[in-house]
Amino acid sequence: MNLCDIKTVKQIMSAYHLNFRKEFGQNFLTDRSVVEDISSECCATDAGTILEIGPGIGTLTYELALRHRKVIALEIDRGLIPVLEYTLGEFDNVTVINEDVMKTDLDALLALAFAEGPVSVCANLPYYITSPILMKLLESRLPFDYITVMIQKEVADRLTSPAGGKDYGAITAVLAYYGEAEKLFDVPADRFMPAPKVDSAVIRIRLYKDKPCKPKDEELLFRTIKAAFAQRRKTLANTLTAGFPELSREQINTLIADCGHEPTVRGERLDIAQFTELSNKIFELIA
Ligand code: SAM
């Protein structure tokens, strides 16, 4: 069965009386080489478990199951479960669970998998909920090796932008705290069914086992980043003054200078190490 074949996809959907559900971001992959590339590049070893979010009709899942020891796939749409039983019926290393990833207790779900070996995430994510899913995975603090996801190209450019780049934002800096993100390749919109309005890209995040940045207070680091990006095109001194009313303008000017920045520096110039240094100095003033 070729799940990348458009005729096959149509036949399956019609046989199970299903429509593509926009509210679940259902755009199924129809390019075999893209599916193979994601599956082979999503982690360093094929001896581990892959958590897939949103298997759809099982196109990527099929390839993951061929290559990797074990696959656990979470699918929100109940209507797709019988389809997945059919398309993945030949595998005994795949577990499909009918659940919303945002409501899933990932710790409990993956406890055994982590005890058995490395676990990575691989998914063609539903676009409507990309950032919340990524933040849930990162904030779970589960020791995933890699998180490899297909997302909107624009979001991929943002997440992989260097500090100071035109796409660099608060979420880029936060992501850089947890791991190292790289763009693997772009995927044009016509490789999906139905075709979305925008192009996509695959990014791979290698999560740090030991994070290089050591903030004194993690929440304060995130608050500092959020404040710095709250008003783009304003200087860091201005955005921090608005974001930290408990600090005087003089204190803010001094700590920016102590970190070695020009008084006119903008927040979007700072990388995660510089944000960590800044937030550690703020910690000394307000803790
Ligand atoms: N993996 C398939 C592929 O590449 O062809 C389908 C990808 S499609 C972009 C996104 C999939 O995620 C759909 O099957 C959709 O039903 C599912 N989905 C959407 N929201 C979800 C959620 N909150 N939890 C789990 N699955 C979800």
What is the strand and helix layout of this fold?
Layout: H1 6-15, E1 28-29, H2 32-41, E2 49-53, H3 59-67, E3 70-74, H4 81-87, E4 94-97, H5 106-116, E5 119-124, H6 130-139, E6 146-152, H7 153-159, H8 170-178, E7 179-187, E8 192-193, E9 200-207, H9 218-230, H10 236-243, H11 249-258, H12 272-286
Helix pairs in contact: 2-3, 9-10, 9-12, 10-11, 11-12
Bound molecules: S-adenosylmethionine.
Describe the structure.
The protein has 287 residues and is α/β, with parallel strands linked by helices. It is 41% helix and 17% strand. The protein has 2 domains: 6-207, Vaccinia Virus protein VP39 (Rossmann fold), CATH 3.40.50; 218-286, rRNA adenine dimethylase, C-terminal domain (Helicase, Ruva Protein, domain 3, Orthogonal Bundle), CATH 1.10.8. The longest helix has 15 residues, at 272-286. The radius of gyration is 21 Å and the shape is elongated. The mean pLDDT is 96. Bound molecules: S-adenosylmethionine. S-adenosylmethionine binds at residues 24-29, 53-56, 59-60, 74-77, 100-102, 124, 126, 129.
Q: What is the string of helix and strand elements?
A: HEHEHEHEHEHEHHEEEHHHH
Strand order of the largest sheet: 4-3-2-5-6-9-7
**What is the fold named in CATH at topology level of the largest domain?**
Rossmann fold
The ligands found in this model are: S-adenosylmethionine
Shape: elongated
Strand content: 15-25%
Taking the sheet with the most strands, its summary is: 7 strands, mixed
Distance N terminus to C terminus? 61 Å
CA gyration radius, whole angstroms? 21 Å
* Helix count, DSSP H or I runs of 4 or more residues: 12
The CATH C-level name of the largest domain is Alpha Beta
What structural class do helix, strand and pairing data support?
alpha/beta
Give me the count of strands. 9
Mean pLDDT: 96
Helical amount among residues, as a percent range? 40-55%
